[in-house]
Structures are given as C-alpha cells and as structure tokens.
Amino acid sequence: SVRARIIGTGSYLPDKILTNAALSQTVDTSDSWIRSRTGIAQRHIAADGQYTSDLAFKAARAALARAQVDAAEVDLIVLATTTPDNTFPSTAVKVQAMLGMQRGAAFDVQAVCSGFIYALSVADNFIRAGQAKTVLVIGAETFSRILDWEDRATCVLFGDGAGAVVLRGETTDGSHARPPGILSTHLHSDGRFANLLYVDGGASSTQSVGHVRMSGREVFRHAVVNLAAVVVEALHANGLDQSDIDWIVPHQANKRILDGTARKLGVAPDRVVVTVDKHANTSAASVPLALDEAVRDGRIKEGDLVLMEAMGGGLTWGAALVRW
Ligand code: ACO
User: Would strands 76-80 and 105-109 be described as parallel, antiparallel, or unpaired?
Assistant: First the structure.
C-alpha cells in the first residue's frame, strides 16, 4: 500500500514583532493579563503590501529545499487559509505561479484554525488514491488583517505566519516494522456552533471582509473536550494509546488549552510543542510552524510518533497521526 511521508518542513514569520507591551499602548490591555490568560508574549505582523501568498511562498520554498524536491515535481498544492489574498483566485494558484510551476493543480481549503489538519488529510487521501505523488501542503495567514484592533478580547490573541510540508507517496513493502508516514487523519465539524467564532463579513453577505467575532469562554470549553476526544480516536484507530506518543504538535491557540488538553489526556507537558508564546494564534499556520521548529531543533527524530491536532471556527476539529 501507499503511505504519504513528510519529507520536508518549512516556515516563515514576518519580520515585524508586536509585543504585549507595544499592544497595550493602543488597546486597553496589559502584558500580565495577556500572559496569564493565554501564555502569549508577542506575535509577528505582516508588512504593508505583504500578502498571505508571500508568506506561503517563503514557507513552501523552505520546505521544498529541505526535502530536496524541485517545484516542477509537485503534483498538487493544498493551501489552508482563512485570509486569502483575494476572494478569488485561490491563494494556492498564486503560490503555484510564484514557485514557477507550470503543471499540477492547486486549491485552497478553508477550515480556519483546523485548516492545516484538513489540508493534510486531503493531501493524504490524494496520495493514497494514487492521484498525486508529491504534494505541497501549506498553512498561511495574515490574520492581523481581519482583526478588530479596538476589540481587546480578540485582537491580542492572533498573529501572522506560514508553514509548509512536502509529502511524498511511498510504497510500503512490508520490510519496515514501523514504516514512516501518515498513519491516519480524523476530521470533524459541527456547524451548529458557527456563531461562537466567525467573521462578520464576506463576499455574499456584506461585500466586505469583516472582522473576527468570538465567544471566548464557550470556544475554550469546546476546545478541550473535542481535542481530547479526537486524539483518543486517532490513537485507538491505530491500536495505540497515549503512552505511545512522542510529540504532540497542537494548534497554538492558547497555553491554557494546550495544558488542559495534555492534562485531560494524561500526556506529560514536556511532550507538547509550544510556540504560542512567540507566535500567538496563527490559525492554519500554527501547526506547521510548530512542526518545523521541533523538526529543525532536533526534538522530532526518525521513528517518533507525532500527533497533530487542531480546533477552530465552524466549529471544526481534527487530528493526524504521523510516524516520523
Ligand atoms: N485585556 C484585559 N482585559 C480583557 C482583555 C484584554 N485583552 N480581554 C478581555 N478582557 C476582560 C473582559 O472584558 C472581562 O472583563 P469583565 O469581567 O469586566 O467583563 C474579563 O477580562 C474576563 O473576560 P473573559 O472573556 O471572560 O476572559 P477569559 O478568562 O475567558 O479569557 C480568553 C478570555 C483568553 C479569550 C479565553 O476565553 C480563551 O482563551 N478562549 C479560547 C478562545 C481561543 O483561543 N480562540 C482562538 C480560536 S479557536 C481555537 O483556535 C481553539
């Protein structure tokens, strides 16, 4: 059978850093409030004229270089974003052109903060079905552009960035006891909770972009329950349990959600990759940004069992289990 293996990771963060202290100059908040409620110390903000496609391109180029794959070999780009450059065309086709690709297919996936897990699942299924061999999966956001900078309850939580992975379909011949690659992906959504976290604008409704609106406390409550459940679902589907996990690479929304989920699962905090302090919540970019950091600093090693999970607006949530 065919398995999708992650053969390269990459990421990109815009140069400009906005600290809590700087933010508290313009919004009625404080470093201590933000740190104690969220664990966030700073976030990166895209420059004027720097779009989601620019961030995505840089992350993609880094992942391709790490994988030693030429853009011409890529069959498919699946790009997760909730902040596309334009309503259309997709940000994925813009990245396709920036990479100099003249073949293959490219499209966007929209599942907000769960976007990367959704995109990874789509890519995994294309590879398993034999419809693509080499796939670029990107999560990229300029979330700062859809924030209401006068709403202290939301604007302090988010940041901009991009991460990417290169997947390659490999035939498993049975000679490897624990062949590397994606073991399984698990997606869920429940549109009854759409009003807990949404943007109050859009092409069809207001003909404007709109701003993020959120019932923070309610989202928090759903996050810990749903994330713990989908992690257990992913492990059990593969005959594994919590003690088999080497690294959890979670969506980085809030340190308290990360801690609460780890506690509920009985996973030691030092097995959880945390970047929310430096990046804040970068929505679809947060999982591949955290993954790239842990791969590059040597924490994630060959043979490790890596569990990625996320929850976001929709509500949407999901998990992916990967043997490194
Ligand atoms: N600075 C200072 N005070 C603030 C700020 C701020 N930035 N934001 C809100 N407050 C005030 C509120 O006005 C409120 O004051 P009041 O009691 O006088 O009315 C008080 O702080 C408490 O507000 P709550 O919203 O109840 O605070 P809570 O303890 O729930 O923390 C938070 C808010 C951090 C948003 C929390 O609910 C949370 O983390 N929710 C999860 C949301 C999330 O992470 N969403 C991301 C997208 S979804 C995902 O990725 C999982």
Answer: parallel
